[in-house]
Amino acid sequence: MRKNVVAGNWKMNTTLQEGVKLATEVNEALKNVDAKCDVVICVPFTHLASVNAVIDPAKLGLGAENCADHVKGAYTGEISAPMVASTGATYVILGHSERRQYYGETSETLKEKVNLALANNLTPIFCIGEVLEQRENGSYLEVVKTQIEEALFDLSAEDFSKLILAYEPVWAIGTGKTATDDQAQEMHAFIRGVIAEKYGKEVADNTSILYGGSCKPSNAKALFAKPDVDGGLIGGAALEAESFMGIVTAF
Ligand code: PGA
């Protein structure tokens, strides 16, 4: 059966020293709880190796927030999937709406990133989600379906089974405006149906689909109680160990 996962997305926050301190705090806190979910922190590239050195990989997974769409070579400033893997990280967020919006990521480039992540034994946390206008004009289900089809449906069933999906309505990210648990459930069930149509019910039932967008300790319980919501991708509330743990323990 699919796993429950709570993953932090630190975005472009914390210096190296602050990041190591935060990771240490989360790692310590996890020693005292019996977490009912896999817990992951996705941190800036510069922090990966140092954070890896202070966490217990049996309790806390580590991921990057992006990787390049090429394996190596003359791509100044880019960080490849093998580089990420060489730090000890085992996850990578791909297709976050901020990357799509500000850095021009398309389904075509994301396809390459997913392939390279998988080839390097990184678990992609693949993000999808509609903008406010699409929510309001009723096209949101179709938009998300297209994002999944375009970037992921060339994968074999075996490879698709290695992914984690994160539904993040763009209008809910960092805005304090969370999707209601019913809105999240509607979309998550729809996504599972789209996967089932392509890969069959077993693959769909085994895919973890996380919710992201202003998830916090006060709303995590209701969201995670929904049958198709398998955890969260957490931005702002992942920047303090206490609030992050408040979400981890919502399961
Ligand atoms: P937020 O971000 O929790 O700050 O809304 C979530 C995300 O963008 O992954």
Give me some keywords for this one:
12 helices, 15% strand, 8 strands, eight-stranded parallel barrel, binds 2-phosphoglycolic acid, 43% helix, alpha/beta, 251 residues
How would you characterize this protein structure?
The chain has twelve helices and eight strands. It has 251 residues and is α/β, with parallel strands linked by helices. The mean pLDDT is 97.
Task: Summarize this structure briefly.
The chain is α/β, with parallel strands linked by helices. The chain is built from 12 helices and 8 strands. Helix 11 links the parallel strand 7 and strand 8.
The molecules bound to the chains, other than polymers, are: 2-phosphoglycolic acid
Shape: globular
Radius of gyration: 17 Å
Main pleated sheet = 8 strands, parallel, barrel
**Strand ordering within the main sheet:** 1-2-3-4-5-6-7-8
Q: How far do the termini sit from each other?
A: 16 Å
Structure classification = alpha/beta
Helix content: 40-55%
The count of strands amounts to 8
- Summarize the helix and strand pattern as letters: EHEHEHEHHEHHHEHHEHEH
Beta-strand content: 5-15%
pLDDT averaged residue by residue = 97
Low-confidence stretches: none
Number of helices: 12
